[in-house]
Structures are given as C-alpha cells and as structure tokens.
Design the sequence.
C-alpha cells in the first residue's frame, strides 16, 4: 500500500506528523521528494557528525554556476523521514526529477545558465522545495487555490493559515488525509500545464512504481502537499514513460554542505524560505511550550546584552501573550503573540530590541556540521583541517579576531585568511586596526554556506589552500595588465606567504617596470612596495626580494624623473608634487644609503634646472633643505635667484608655493629664510603684489592655524623698526607729572 | 439635540455599545461591559452577525488594538505612547467607554498635578468641622474607578512630576489605596485598570521611573501608514464633527481632504508623494488631528462666512496656522513648499493663491 504524506517543507508540525505516522505504519521503504543523484549521500544521515541544518549541494561539474541547494533542518519532515529510515534500516530514496535532467533541459532550452552563485538557491526555480508550493501555483494560475482556502478559513495569508491549521496542532489524526483531500479539490479543475511540473511528477510516479516492482508493500512517500493528488491517482505507466523519454542530461556532482538558519529564512532570498527557523526549532524541541520557555530564552538573551529584564517582565509577557491568543481565538500563543507581548512589556514599545531578538532567536545563528569522513572536495577538506588546527571555527554569526602576528598561531591564522582572500573565498574581512604597530591585524569572520561553491570553484587550482592560492596568483600575475594590479597582488601575496607566487610576481613586476615608460606609475607603486619591504619583517617574509626590486625601480625613476618634470602643465605639476611627497617618504623609510643618495642627486638636478616647473623646483629645493644639503647662505642664494625681480611674479609665487608646501615651521624658525621671503614681499610693486596675492594666500592657507597665527605675530613684530621702539620708550614727563598728586594721595603721602 | 458641546464616547455611540452587548457571547472579564473581542470590534469597526454596522473609531493596525485590549485583561496598566495627534486620547476614551461604559474618570496630567489629584483630597470645611471622616474625603477619579471596578484615564502621564507619578506604583501593584488618616484603605474592585497616554515629542517631560514603567505595557501608536488611511481618518472625524457642531456647510469634497492630507504628509515626511523632491520639514508635528481641525475650521468658515461650499480660501488660514508654529523658520519652509511644489501642480492654483494671500 502506498502512503502519500503531503507536507510543507520545513514545518515542525509536519515533521512531527511524519515521524508519528512512520512509527505507526512501519513502512518498508521511504521515498522522499528530492534529487535521486543524492541517494548515495543518504547513508550519512544517521551519522553523529552530520548535524542539521545541512544542505545537499548539486552542481554541474563543468559549469559551476549551475548549482542547486536542498537545505534540511531538524524540523524538516524530509529530514525526519530520512532519519527514521536510517535508524530502522529500511531503504530510503529520493524520487524527484534528477537534477541532471533539470540542468540538461535548461541548457537545451537555452535558458540563461549564468545565475550568479549567490542566487543559486533560486535556480532552477522548480528544483527547489517551495513552502507548500504556493509560489508555483501562483506563477501558473495567477491566483492560488490555497489562498482561497485560507480566505475561507478567515486568514489573509495562506502561509499563516497553513501554520495554524496544520503545523501548530498537537493532535495529528488524519492530517494527511485532510491535506490530500484539500489538495485534490484545489487541483481538480486546474490541471498542471507546466512541463517541468509534469516531468517531476511523472518521475515521482516512476520511482513509486519501481519500488512496487521491487516487492515493497508498505511504501511511504513524503512530498510537498501540492503533489499529493498526482501521486495518489496514477495515470497509465506508458504515459509517464513516454513523457520521460530522451531527456537531455548533464554530469552532476553532489555533496553535503553545512547550512545556516539565516540561509533558511526568506530574507536570504531562498525561494522556499521560512520566516522564523529559530522559532520552528523551538517548536520542534518543545511542542508543549506555552511561551514560558521561549520568553525565558528572550530574557536570557537580553540579560546577556546588558538589558535589565526581570522575571516579572517575563511573567507579564507570557500573560499578555495568553490574553492575546485568547482574544484571537487561538489555543496557544504563537510567535506573533509572543513577539507582540515582548515588544509591549519588555521593550516598552521600542522596536529596536526586537531586531536583536529576531536575529538571535527567531532566525538564530545556528550552523550545521558534517562528519569527518564525508567525501568532500579536497580544498574544502584542507580548509577544514586548518580551521580545526588554528581554532577558527566557521560560525554563522560574525566574530572579530585581533591577530598578534608575533605569535605563531596568530601568524598562521593570518596566513590562512590572506590565502583565502587571494582565492576569492571571502570568509574573513580585514578591518582597520586600532592602535599602533604593524604586528596586529583585525579580521571579521562570518561563514556563509554558499562559500562552498567558491571552494569547489577554486578547487581547480589545487588541492590545498597553499597550492591553490599559489597557482591562482601565478595565473593572475601572468594575465595582469598593469603594474599597479601586479603590485596590489604582490602586497596581498606577501602576507599570505606564498614564496613561489611572490617570485613569479616579482619577475612580472620587474619585467613590467622595465617596459613601462610612465614614471608616474612607477612612483605610485614604489611607496606600497617600500612599506612591504620595511614592515614585512614581522612576518619573516623574504623582504630582501622586494628591496631588490624597489631599489631597481628607484634607479629607473631617478633617471627619467628630471625629464618628466619639465614642460608640464600646472595640474600635472600638482599631481607630480603629491607623488614627490610619497616617494620622498618612501625613500626615507627605506633607509638604503645608495638609494637616498641617488634620490638626493636627482633632486638637485631637478631643482637646479631652469626648465623644471617652478612648483616642483621649489619643492625640490625645500626637500634639499630638509636633507640639510642646502643651508644658510646657499639656501638664501637659491631663494633670491628664484624670486629675483627678473622672474615673473606668477612663476616666483609658484616656486614659493612649492617651497613652502606642507609646513611653515621652516619659515618661522629660519631667520635668514624669513628675511628673504619678507624682503621679497615688501619690495614687490603694488601691481605685482596684487597679482601674486592669490597664490600666496593659497600657499599660506594650507598651514595650520597656530602656524598662521605665529607667522602673523612675527610679521607684526618684524614690521616694527627698532627706531620706533626706542621712541615708544621715551616718557612724556609733563603728562606723568600730572598724575603724581593722585598717586601720592593714594599712597597716603601728603599732597605736594 | 443636546446642548452639550461634545458628548462622551459612551453617549455618542450608545447604540453601537448596546448592539454589541446584545450580540456578545463568550466570557466577559469581571465588571467589563463587553467581551474583549467586542471591545476590539467596537474600536476597529465591523459588521455584527445581525447586520449591524459598527463604525471604526481607530483606523489602523488592528493588532495594536488587540494588544491594548489584551493588556487590560491582565493586571498590567496600559500606556499609549506616540506623537501628538496620533489618536492616543481618542483610543483611550473609547477603550474606557467600551470596557467600562464610562470614559469620564479622567485626570489631566500637568506639571502642577499633585498627589491629592491622584489619590484623594480633603474637603477642608468638613475636615475642620467634623475631623477626619469618610465624608470629608474627596475621591479622585482613580479612587472612584477602584471602587467601581472601572477604567481610569490619565492624560499626559509624563507631564506629571516624577514624585507624583510614583504614587501610582502602589495602586498598580497592590491594587489598593491606603488612607492612613482614617486607618482604612480603598481596595480596587475587579475591572479596575488605568490607561495612560504620553507623547514622545515634548521636551522637559518626566520620564517614568523604571519601577513604574514595569507596571505599564506600552503600545506605540504610529502616524498613519498610507495616504488612503489618513484620508479615511480625516473624513470620518470631520463628518462626526459636523454632526456634533451643526455646521451648516456641505460635506467636504474628498478632493479638498486629499489636498490637505497630501500637504501634511509631504511636509511631515520631508519628501513629495512621488518621492522626487526633497522638502524642508516644519517644526510642528502636523498630525492627522491637525489635518482634521484644519478641515473643520474651513467648514465653519465656509458655513458661516462663505457660500457653504468648502473652498481653498476657507482652508488657507487654517493650513497656514497649522504649519507656521515658528514664525521665522516655518515661514521659510512653507514659502519654499508653496513655490516649489504647490505652484507647479496644475489643479492646485486656487490653493496656491489663497495661501499666498494669507502669508
């Protein structure tokens, strides 16, 4: 006899009913709506290590973007059916249309297969397990029969109606008969027209017939409620065979992957999603709970987050939830009543806290686990090995790690994370570190089940994280188009400690830097490279390698830079100025005697050339002054000649702008320099002064306020000639004498 | 027609309450006039099994009303919280009318509300003449509600000083009001509860102490969700106003109400309905209640000074007055709105001209 059990995917009530039914009927085979390719995987279900939520991942071996997930939670009826079958040692099979055909048909029909991996849960639409399959019927008919029934039952939402009618009840007698009859009525005058749908149901019937042929007598079939009528009234076998003949097929691989509750929820874009996996899990474990246990959980959570929650709050919440349920004619409070009570009593009407409860309890962060022995892609296995070794568990909620790279474990952790980052497996996200020092790294880790696809995708590059990352980086290095891309890659590859990849990158960088004629591009990459070579030591990387290329690049820059600074426009000069600053800092950081000298010589050449853009010439002079290569008399001389009367005021002002770039302190402290500038400004004729004023103003406006104030004070003091000062000191004796009588009186002497 | 300016809810809707009572089946909490289900129906409206139509008093989320009523069935008090003009007092009045059939046990909270106004006071003439006695005791609405098992209402709870607020703690937790002078107490009869309202816009209010807060369940009343909902509210309230005030004007065209509600919604949310233009928001709350009073005001103008038809001129003064709460800032906001939004709307020319004249 066939027992067709119509269920809703991920429904705790359905799961309980299925379990009770199976235990009562004791079938000798269980058939479940699901991909037959995964039959082999079913033997793992009874393994201790396989803890839901987990999903079966099926993917087309040669086109990874074609993939589909079948998630199962503890409270999924399918999961309970599998568990029952495994525990009672009876065969269990999947009976849906093989995914190989689904993908094949899609490919044949030329449907766009390029579904982004993250959206793979939605494609192909029908291979999913939609909740009560309502969306399907809506798509096909435009109006859902279930909605009519919900309406008749006094509910606005068909999902809620199903929940109240089937999921939340405790007694389960004849539930399946009721579902079957209801669905038959719903489907009576709406024959299935969609071909995919017809194929799926035909395949299900085929599997049932096969089981009967194999002399199984009590066949239990677990499927979405919508399919029940199609499986109870079987059309002739010939029709189905006809339909299923010659279906296209592709090669499909499958495996178990851990899943999370948040990925089961609607908000993640999962077609058959449910709103509240955490609540369902609670319902599954504590079917008799009247809300007390749930509210206690809420209180515990809120207290963990330092929110005062008393027992009285919980008592009142439970009472309010019960009153609400009574008011709405429910036998016991559901999640909505409990939420409303929590909002009103515990949160004082503030919806902010409810968000927290939603994240932590209603959806919950639970993540499934897989047994160690399960066959999985080698790269996945390697990642898990590292996760275990480095004690970096994959969690569904994000967690922050601050790594101290001086410690062995933290260094290895950082290495792993950097390698995964290079592979495009974004488990961790580096974030800014507070505090000083280069030995610290901050990471935020959050495991997302769909990373499984990335892992399989990148598995082509190697079987271990190290090998795959190396191969992948080398591949990127050989195809990289610009020097900047290469340098970014190098910067990322160094902390990942991939010597081979780094070597390949360095060869590429050297080649490209030799070939490039663009000095500015070279200057841009030097700064980050120097940082690497200087601070790389914390990670014990071979910084000498990088230093080698950097010095080579500096030589190249020094050779072509003077030429690059002549005859350029004002904006280009400004850009160049910024690069000079970076480059200069980089060279000071590098502390390589040869490179520094080379750089200084170049600066001298640029500063001394007449054709250099005045802003750059000025800045170079200033840098030379900073290096103490140009001091005292010499500096004054250079300044005089740069701003002498023969030079057009605009050019002179540009030179000063470059010269004074960044800091006015030099001007404040160097008396000679001050005199030079001061005298120059004073001797400017009025017209020229007006002409250079905006430029000067621009230069001075870059200074900090205290600097400007001090400069102003200095000008005022300097403007007072010494002669005046003595004049001020002379006393007007006549005026002073007039005050004397009063002062004498004040001091108590008799008046004169 | 009664000479009363504004009747109590239980008088105005006596017929509905009567019908609901007749139809009522199910268990009533002690001293309640209706079952909780019927109270909810009374508030949100509906059709009874005999075809009697109950008018909606609160237009909005039914669930909020369910929470409010369910709260009153427990022994926790109800705190209605929200912006001014979101029907807090209105809901509280109708809840009291629906549950106790009496919405008159009310205390208006002010900074000057004293303990005597909440607990009990003395008739000093009697007190001096006869000494402390039951007769010399002046009962407050709260004391009376406790004796009769009814709902007492406290308006603007947060305006009352914190020390005075806390006298409610004993009343709410022990359900008793000790009178030490007479060595006696007033014990609350079943059915007693308190509905308080408070608004979250005011500054300088006294927040509830956490001990008191714990005795209240909070329901936040939001501003209306949609344009249609808000128009519905304004229309219904204006119609009921006509009934009460006997204004001779014609009922307002939906068109006029739509325009007022649009102006208020747009200024309140700081963006035009089509979402294309950003607007400055004025300092006032521009609640639905104010929209209602603008329409009422306009109708009175039309009825007594105009031709009985509500026109833009009749409304202009009311709108301007409602929006210009701050003579300097709000004027800029309003002028900008007039010039950038109102002026450019094809069929709003009359309202633009009328408002410009008033400014």
Sequence:
């Amino acid at each position: 006899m066939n027992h067709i059990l119509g269920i809703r995917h991920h429904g705790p009530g359905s799961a309980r009913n299925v379990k009770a039914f199976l235990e009562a009927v004791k079938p000798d085979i269980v058939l479940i709506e699901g991909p037959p390719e995964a039959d082999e995987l079913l033997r793992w279900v009874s393994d201790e290590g396989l803890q839901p939520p987990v999903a079966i991942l099926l993917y087309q071996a040669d086109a990874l973007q074609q993939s589909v997930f079948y998630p199962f939670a503890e409270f999924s009826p399918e999961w309970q059916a599998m568990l029952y079958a495994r525990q009672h040692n009876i065969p269990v099979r999947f009976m849906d249309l093989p995914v190989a055909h689904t993908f094949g048909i899609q490919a044949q029909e030329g449907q766009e297969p390029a579904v982004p991996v993250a959206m793979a849960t939605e494609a192909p639409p029908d291979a999913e397990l939609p909740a009560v399959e309502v969306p399907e019927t809506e798509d096909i008919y435009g109006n859902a029969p279930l909605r009519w029934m919900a309406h008749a039952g006094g509910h606005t939402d068909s999902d809620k109606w199903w929940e109240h009618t089937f999921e939340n009840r405790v007694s389960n007698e004849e539930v399946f008969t009721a579902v079957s009859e209801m669905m038959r009525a719903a489907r009576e005058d709406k024959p299935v027209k969609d071909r995919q749908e017809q194929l799926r149901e035909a395949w299900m019937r085929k599997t049932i017939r096969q089981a009967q042929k194999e002399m199984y007598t009590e066949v239990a079939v677990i499927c979405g409620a919508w399919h029940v009528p199609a499986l109870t009234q079987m059309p002739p076998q010939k029709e189905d065979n006809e339909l299923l003949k010659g279906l296209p097929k592709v090669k499909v691989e499958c495996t178990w992957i851990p899943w999370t509750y948040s990925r089961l929820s609607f908000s993640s874009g999962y077609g058959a999603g449910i709103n509240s996996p955490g609540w369902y899990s609670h319902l599954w474990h504590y079917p008799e709970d009247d809300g007390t246990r749930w509210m206690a959980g809420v209180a515990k959570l809120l207290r963990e987050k330092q929110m005062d929650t008393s027992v009285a709050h919980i008592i009142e919440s439970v009472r309010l939830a019960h009153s609400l349920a009574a008011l709405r004619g429910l036998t016991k409070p559901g999640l909505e009543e409990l939420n409303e009570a929590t909002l009103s009593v515990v949160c004082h009407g503030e919806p902010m806290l409810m968000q927290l409860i939603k994240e932590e309890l209603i959806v919950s962060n639970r993540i499934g686990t897989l047994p160690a022995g399960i066959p999985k892609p080698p790269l996945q296995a390697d990642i898990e090995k590292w996760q275990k070794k480095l004690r970096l568990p994959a969690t569904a909620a994000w967690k922050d790690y601050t790594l101290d790279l001086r410690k062995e474990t933290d260094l290895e952790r950082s290495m792993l994370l950097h390698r995964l980052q290079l592979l495009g497996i974004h488990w961790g996200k580096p974030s800014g570190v507070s505090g000083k020092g280069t030995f610290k790294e901050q990471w935020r880790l959050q495991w997302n089940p769909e990373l499984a696809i990335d892992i399989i995708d990148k598995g082509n590059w190697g079987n271990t994280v190290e090998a795959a990352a190396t191969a992948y980086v080398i591949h990127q290095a050989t195809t990289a188009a610009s020097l900047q891309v290469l340098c970014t890659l190098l910067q990322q590859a160094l902390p990942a400690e991939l010597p081979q990849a780094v070597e390949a990158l360095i060869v590429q960088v050297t080649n490209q830097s030799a070939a490039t004629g663009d000095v500015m591009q070279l200057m841009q990459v030097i700064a980050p490279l120097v940082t690497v070579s200087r601070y790389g030591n914390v990670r014990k990387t071979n910084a000498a390698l990088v230093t080698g290329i950097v010095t080579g690049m500096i030589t190249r820059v020094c050779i072509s830079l003077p030429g690059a600074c002549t005859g350029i426009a004002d904006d280009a000069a400004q850009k160049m100025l910024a690069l000079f600053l970076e480059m200069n800092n980089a060279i000071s950081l590098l502390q390589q005697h040869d490179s520094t000298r080379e750089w200084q010589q170049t600066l001298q050449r640029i500063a001394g050339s007449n054709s250099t853009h005045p802003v750059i010439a000025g800045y170079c002079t200033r840098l030379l002054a900073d290096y103490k290569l140009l001091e005292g008399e010499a500096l004054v001389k250079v300044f005089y000649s740069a701003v002498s009367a023969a030079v057009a005021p605009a050019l002179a002002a540009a030179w000063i702008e470059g010269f004074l770039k960044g800091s006015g302190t030099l001007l404040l402290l160097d008396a000679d320099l001050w005199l030079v500038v001061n005298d120059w400004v004073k001797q400017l004729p009025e017209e020229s002064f007006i002409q250079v004023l905006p430029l000067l103003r621009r230069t001075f406006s870059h200074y900090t306020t205290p600097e400007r104030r001090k400069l102003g004070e200095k000008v005022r003091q300097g403007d007072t000639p010494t002669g005046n000062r003595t004049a001020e000191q002379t006393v007007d004796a006549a005026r002073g004498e007039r005050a004397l009588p009063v002062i004498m009186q004040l001091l108590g002497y008799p008046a004169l | 027609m009664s000479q009363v300016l504004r009747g109590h809810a239980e008088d105005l809707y006596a017929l509905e309450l009567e019908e609901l009572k007749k139809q009522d089946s199910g268990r009533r909490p002690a001293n309640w006039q209706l079952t909780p289900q019927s109270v909810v129906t009374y508030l949100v409206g509906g059709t009874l099994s005999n075809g009697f139509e109950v008018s909606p008093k609160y237009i909005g989320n039914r669930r909020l009303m369910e929470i409010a009523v369910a709260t009153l069935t427990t022994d926790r008090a109800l705190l209605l919280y929200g912006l001014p003009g979101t029907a807090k007092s209105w809901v509280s009045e109708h809840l009291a009318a629906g549950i106790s059939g009496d919405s008159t046990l009310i205390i208006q909270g002010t900074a000057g509300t004293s303990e005597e106004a909440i607990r009990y006071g003395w008739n000093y003439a009697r007190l001096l003449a006869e000494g402390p006695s039951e007769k010399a005791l002046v009962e407050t609405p709260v004391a009376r509600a406790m004796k009769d098992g009814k709902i007492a209402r406290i308006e603007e709870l947060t305006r009352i000083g914190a020390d005075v607020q806390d006298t409610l703690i004993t009343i709410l937790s022990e359900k008793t009001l000790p009178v030490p002078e007479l060595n006696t107490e007033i014990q609350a009869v079943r059915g007693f509860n308190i509905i308080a309202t408070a608004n979250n816009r005011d500054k300088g209010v006294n927040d509830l102490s956490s001990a008191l807060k714990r005795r209240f369940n909070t329901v936040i009343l939001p501003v209306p969700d949609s344009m249609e909902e808000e128009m519905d509210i304004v229309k219904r309230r204006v119609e009921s106003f006509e009934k009460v005030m006997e204004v001779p004007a014609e009922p307002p065209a939906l068109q006029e109400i739509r325009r007022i509600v649009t102006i208020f919604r747009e200024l309140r949310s700081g963006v035009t309905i089509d979402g294309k233009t950003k607007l400055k928001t004025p300092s006032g709350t521009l609640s639905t209640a104010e929209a209602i009073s603008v329409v009422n005001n306009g109708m009175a103008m039309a009825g007594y000074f105009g031709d009985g038809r509500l026109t833009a001129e009749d409304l202009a003064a009311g709108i301007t007055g409602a929006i210009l709460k701050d003579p300097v800032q709000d004027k800029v906001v309003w002028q900008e709105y007039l010039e950038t939004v109102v002026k450019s709307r094809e069929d709003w020319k009359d309202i633009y001209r009328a408002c410009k004249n008033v400014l």
In short: The radius of gyration of chain B is 23 Å. Residues 75 and 140 of chain B are 21 Å apart (CA to CA).
